[in-house]
Amino acid sequence: MFPFIILANENDDDRSFIAQLYEQHYPLMKKKAYELTHDYSITDDLINDAFIKLIKKISTLRSLDCYKRTTYIVFTIRSVAINHNRQQAAKSQKVYLGMSDDLMDSIPDPITIDEVCATKEDYRELGEAIEQLSERDRSLLYNKYNLELSDTEIAKIMDIPINNVRVYIMRARQRALKILTRRDTVNENQ
After folding, report:
1. pLDDT per position as a tens digit, 2-44
2. CATH number of the domain residue 74 falls in
3. H/E element holding 91?
4. Is residue 62 part of a domain?
5. In which domain, by residue range, is 158 found?
6. Domain tally for the chain?
């Protein structure tokens, strides 16, 4: 079966020349395309793409002898197949083709007004609890969670031994939690 583009050629002489090349070199081109792509489902498409390029070079093809013409055709299908492989590699790097993961599952559900209000209330309560902590505890928590400093950086800034930073942060969190739970029990009793 000839590609439609060959039949669309206006010049009868060019059409018969390209059709003859197609008949002669189709098996070789199919073999070369498969060697490079390892996919029979696209070899015919690659051959058609190669002939689209070759039609533009009819005068060059006519000037070549039989062996050089065959080499030219093989290099053309080789280039088309390599370009296809590059495009597929680039496409596979850009597109995630997960079998079990659905992109919709990763999009969070819209937050309701009640949730926003509850979150704001939680932040407000946490802020008030942190205000009741000592200056050192506030600085430790601020440096660790707001500034996201490492333990080494916190030790240098606050002039404390590096081995004690984690313990100090844990104790500051416990004190903040104790203030929050005390506040919650008072609110529940009222």
Report:
1. 555 555 667 788 888 988 999 999 999 999 999 999 998 999 9
2. 1.10.1740
3. helix 66-94
4. yes
5. 113-189
6. 2
